[in-house]
C-alpha cells in the first residue's frame, strides 16, 4: 500500500523530527555530529531551505525549517548520513525509524515557542543543565549571537 502524500504548503515552516531505528543512537562521537552538520549545510546550499532552529540529540534530530522542497533535502540528508554511519560502524538494516515527521507551523508566536522547545531538549533530557551547554543546537547562535553558517534570521 502506498504512503500518504506529505502535506507541503508553499512558504510554510515545519518542525521536522527524525529518530534512529528503535530509538538507537545515531550519533556516537563528535565526528558524527559534525558530519550531520556538514550535510545540513550541503543540502541547505543545494535546496535553499531556511533553518530557524535545530537540536541534535544522541538518538534523534529536531529542525525548524521553511521550504517547499522538504522531501528532496530530507531525503538527501537522511540517506547520506545513514550511508556514512553504516560504513563507519559496519552496520546493516534500517537506520531511521519510519519516515521523518513534519508538522506545519504558523509563522507567529508558536514558531518561537517551538524553537525554544527544541533547544531545551538537552535540559529536559538531563544531558545538560543549561541549553547553552549543548554544543549541537542553534541556541548559542540564536540567543547568544555565536556565529553560525546554518541559522537563518527569523522574520515573522
Describe this structure in words.
Helix content is 37%, strand content 17%. It has 156 residues and is α+β, with helices and mostly antiparallel strands. Strands 2-3-1-4 form a 4-stranded antiparallel beta sheet, covered by helices on one side. It has one domain: 2-Layer Sandwich (Alpha-Beta Plaits), CATH 3.30.70. Helix 1 packs antiparallel against helix 2. It is globular.
Could you provide a short overview of the structure?
With 156 residues, the protein is an alpha+beta fold. It has helices at 30-47, 70-89, 109-119, 121-124, 139-142, and strands at 13-19, 50-56, 60-66, 101-105. The chain has a single domain (13-142), classed as Transposase IS200-like (Alpha-Beta Plaits, 2-Layer Sandwich), CATH 3.30.70.1290.
Amino acid at each position: 500500500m502506498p504512503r500518504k502524500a506529505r502535506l507541503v504548503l508553499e512558504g510554510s515552516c515545519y518542525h521536522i523530527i527524525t529518530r534512529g531505528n528503535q530509538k538507537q543512537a545515531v550519533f556516537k562521537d563528535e565526528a558524527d555530529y559534525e558530519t550531520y552538520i556538514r550535510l545540513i549545510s550541503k543540502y541547505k546550499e543545494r535546496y535553499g531551505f531556511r533553518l530557524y532552529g535545530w537540536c541534535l540529540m544522541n538518538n534523534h534530530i529536531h529542525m525548524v525549517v521553511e521550504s517547499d522542497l522538504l522531501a528532496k533535502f530530507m531525503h538527501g540528508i537522511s540517506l547520506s548520513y545513514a550511508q556514512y554511519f553504516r560504513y563507519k560502524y559496519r552496520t546493516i538494516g534500517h537506520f531511521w525509524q519510519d519516515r521523518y515527521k513534519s508538522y506545519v507551523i504558523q509563522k507567529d508566536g508558536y514558531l518561537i515557542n517551538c524553537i525554544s522547545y527544541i533547544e531545551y531538549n538537552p535540559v529536559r533530557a538531563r544531558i545538560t543543565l543549561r541549553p547553552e551547554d549543548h554544543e549541537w543546537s542553534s541556541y548559542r547562535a540564536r540567543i547568544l549571537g555565536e556565529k553560525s553558517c546554518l541559522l537563518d534570521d527569523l522574520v515573522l
